[in-house]
Amino acid sequence: MPRTIWSGAISFGLVTVPINVVSATEDHSIRFHQYHLEDGGRIRTRKVCELEDREVGQGEIGKGYEVTKTQVIPISDEELRELPLPTAKSIEIEAFVPLESVDPIRIGEGYYLQPAGQVAAKPYKLLRQALARSAKVAVAKYAWSGRERLGLLRVRDDVIVLHAMRWPDEIRDPAELLPPPVEISQEEIDGAMALMDTMTREDLEGEEFRDTYTEALAQVIEAKQGDKPLPEAPQPEEPGKVLDLMAALTESVSRAKAARGETGDADVHDLPKKKTTAKKAPKKTPAGKTTAKTEQKTTAAKKTTKKTAGRRPRSA
Q: For bias kind Low complexity, which ranges apply (predicted)?
């Protein structure tokens, strides 16, 4: 059972929902320690007071704001909890917006909001069902760890999830990272769309979405522990130079189809054929054969001759 990170309430107009906040994610990464290469001794980070030049324990350490090098304003955890903010002890919902209106770059870590006791069951369920039925998310303010934050509330299964959000001024302007102007043809866009269609999936379940890095690292540790040869690393394919973008797209579609077990040639949205400047030589008609147009002309000439021959001369 994950531990409670924070306890408070969701304020929804005049409705209050007491909640506990627990982490919604787990980190399964393999952790390393620093050690001394010469003797294998553990290297640790120690907290030392600069004035007394001695190591201090956690109980002797507090927070403070440095005004100058010689003046520090101490701030206690109790003072942080008692900040004169409505969001210090509650998650204040400010608005409801469509999820697609929120840029994903602003969405951070996720936390499950658990109803705190029986008294919270009904208002919690009310907010959860209202969010689910409206297909909207709530944008809220809350204060954790000495700062006020922006958050997003949404429904996942039967639980309300709180996502930390970044403030608008925390997002850097990407304008300086834009590539130089280039021309993209409709043919290339169609090719890219065809590749996207081939790679489209209904979910993110499958072998492609497992953590192979952690698995490979575990194999290396196991081999070294048992004095066994290290597993051989697969040789990556050398990335080729993209000289023809359309050829690269078409080949990518073929490989994606092959990886999914599909057969047949790549279908790149019926791409238009490129125009060629060379003129085609006229087709030669084989001896003894006539073209359809020549046959039609010959037949028409014969009929005209017959009609003319059958007419009587008009008298003056």
A: 284-302
For the chain, the straight-line distance linking the first and the last C-alpha, in angstroms and rounded, comes to: 120
List of the chain residues with pLDDT < 70: 1, 146, 236-243, 263-316
**What tens digit of pLDDT does each residue of 163-202 get?**
999 999 999 999 888 889 989 899 889 888 988 888 888 8
3, two tokens: 């531990």
* Burial (CB count <10 Å: 0-12, 13-18, 19+), residue 190: middle
CB half-sphere exposure, 201, CA atoms < 13 A: 10
Distances (CA, A) of 284 to 151, 287, 289, 291: 76, 9, 10, 10
Q: What is the pTM of this model?
A: 0.64
Q: How far apart are CA 246 and CA 271, in angstroms?
A: 10
Q: Report strand pairing: 54-55 vs 107-115.
A: unpaired
